[in-house]
């Protein structure tokens, strides 16, 4: 092998199993949720009746998508030899979609091969209902990450009522909505709540011991025997449990830790690799959240970054603001009032990119906020550099 490639087979037995796209066929930590989904929602199908509409919710990485995929596959297997039952399952992610229009277009494309994007909404829905009619029988649509389309959207009560409203006949459409956002349900339009949420199933965050079991099962298949220590698994589980309780996060830590071990030509994944992996994954997450910031948020961050490079942090709000106005005159954008920059700094604090600490103002009035960046300076500079407009300012930072 040339120096450009590396043989990772001493660490990984089957690396695919650590990828996002892998669906496990065993989720014992979700027994309660799977039972409810099976017994309360899907069982009518075995009696040739449409399942109830259902709503699955919980924070990201709690096995919602995996559980829905797994159980619908099981259901397909159950009905396979029963010719009197015609069941079709359609998975549709709403990620990146902001309206039911886009989701409906995607569904039509999935079913007919043609995307009706650009046509009037009524026509898109007519095509969708025609496509359903063509399939017939029982159609179950899983709308994953449905919170993306907003909770005022009509698709959530239109689809479950397609038959009642005469859009389809002699067949049935049921909807299973999945949401990562807990507030989505609370704010859902009452009509949508009424038709979609016949059964609601909550997926609470995993604790460390559940994450350990998940990682153990996954690593048995993914890693070479004995390549991962129990300590490394326990640490990855503990770190993820402390943070979001997300299985996705725990699996990412372990995968990255394996990659670090492989890169260093070591035959074991150790706790040290897991720590390195956590640090790396968190920096990547922060880099992504910096990319997603609005321009004014980025400018506030740029001001603080430039103060950091000069060792001037933690800085009080007026100092950050003064740097901010220097920068806005430089990069040719409008500047906003100090009060609003302060509120941008609080937003950055919320997502963990900066941190603000209150200090008492002593004899000179009430408490003041002092700000500093919460991320690695180099990472922050590199990500901000992706915006060419910041080049001049960042060049100055590099020189200091
Ligand atoms: P969600 O849809 O709730 O965000 P996913 O179902 O995508 O979460 O799960 C995130 C990752 O964790 C996936 O790789 C999934 O296979 C895995 N996972 C989640 N829960 C379990 C579990 N109980 N057993 C095995 N793997 C799991
Ligand atoms: Mg999901």
UniProtKB/TrEMBL annotation:
Q: Which CDD domains match?
A: AAA (cd00009)
Q: Where is the Cdc6 C-terminal domain?
A: 301-384
Q: Where is the signal peptide?
A: none
Task: List the molecular function annotations (GO) for this entry.
Answer: ATP binding; ATP hydrolysis activity
A single BP term in Gene Ontology: cell division
Q: Does the keyword Aminoacyl-tRNA synthetase apply?
A: no
What protein family is recorded? Belongs to the CDC6/cdc18 family.
Question: What name does the UniProt record give this protein?
Answer: ORC1-type DNA replication protein
- The species this protein belongs to is Natronorubrum bangense JCM 10635
């Amino acid at each position: 092998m040339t120096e450009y490639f590396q043989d990772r087979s001493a660490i990984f037995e089957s690396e695919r199993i650590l990828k996002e796209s892998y669906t496990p066929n065993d989720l014992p930590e979700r027994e309660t949720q799977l039972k409810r989904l099976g017994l309360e929602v899907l069982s009518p199908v075995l009696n040739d009746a449409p399942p109830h509409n259902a709503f699955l919710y919980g924070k990201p990485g709690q096995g919602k998508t995996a559980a829905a995929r797994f159980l619908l596959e099981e259901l397909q297997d159950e009905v396979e030899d029963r010719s009197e039952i015609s069941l079709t399952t359609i998975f549709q992610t709403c990620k990146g979609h902001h309206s039911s229009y886009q989701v409906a277009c995607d569904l039509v494309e999935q079913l007919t091969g043609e995307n009706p994007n650009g046509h009037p909404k009524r026509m898109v829905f007519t095509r969708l209902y025609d496509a359903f009619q063509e399939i017939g029988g029982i159609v179950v649509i899983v709308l994953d990450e449905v919170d993306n389309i907003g909770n005022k959207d009509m698709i959530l009560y239109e689809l479950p009522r397609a038959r009642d409203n005469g859009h389809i006949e002699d067949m049935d459409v049921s909807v299973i909505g999945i949401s990562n956002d807990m507030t989505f349900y609370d704010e859902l339009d009452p009509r949508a709540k009424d038709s979609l949420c016949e059964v609601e199933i909550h997926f609470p965050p995993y604790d460390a011991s559940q994450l350990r079991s998940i990682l153990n099962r996954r690593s048995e298949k993914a890693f070479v025997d004995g390549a991962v220590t129990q300590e490394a698994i326990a640490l990855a589980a503990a770190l993820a449990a402390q943070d979001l309780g997300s299985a996705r996060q725990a699996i990412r830590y372990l995968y990255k830790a394996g990659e670090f071990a492989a890169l260093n030509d070591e035959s074991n994944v150790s706790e040290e690799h897991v720590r390195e992996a956590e640090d790396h994954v968190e920096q990547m997450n922060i880099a992504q959240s910096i990319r997603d910031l609005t321009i004014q948020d980025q400018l506030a961050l740029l001001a603080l970054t430039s103060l950091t490079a000069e060792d001037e942090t933690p800085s009080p709000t007026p100092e950050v603001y003064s740097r901010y106005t220097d920068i806005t005159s430089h990069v040719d954008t409008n500047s906003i009032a100090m009060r609003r920059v302060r509120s941008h700094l609080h937003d950055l604090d919320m997502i963990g990119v900066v941190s603000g600490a209150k200090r008492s103002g002593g004899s000179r009035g009430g408490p003041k906020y002092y700000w500093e960046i919460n991320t690695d300076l180099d990472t922050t500079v590199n990500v901000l550099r992706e915006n060419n407009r910041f080049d001049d300012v960042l060049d100055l930072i590099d020189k200091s």
